[in-house]
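Methods — Computational structure assignment.
A single polypeptide chain was analysed. Its primary sequence is given first, followed by the predicted tertiary structure written as structure tokens.
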Amino acid sequence: YSIEAELGRGGMGLVYKARDTKLDREVAIKVLPSAALASADDRERFYREAKSAASLNHPNNAQVYQIDEAVPSDAPHGTQPSPFIAIEYISGGTLQEVIKKAPMSLADAIKVSSQVAEALKVAHAKNIVHRDI
């Protein structure tokens, strides 16, 4: 993967826009910060969440392409590998960014809400709870 830009950051990781150099496609890469890997339980939770996300198959859920561990090419010698998830990159910005530009029409709000609800329905059917919604 070749990192192109940072898309966002939060308590559970950094997200980058990247290019899958083997398959020549854009992807999003989520990397856990070292603070989020303080214990073996943290690392196991990360892998468990990635496996759960990969089990979902719905048009309103981003597809998980890969989970692995790597050391960035510019990291100092001896740096431990960090887990990452490569997922489908979906252009267009976040819902928060869209709302900041202008209020959504009622029709658009209903459309987005319905898409989110359908994706959550698929997750809930597999006993997966999305903790950020």
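Note: The radius of gyration is 16 Å.
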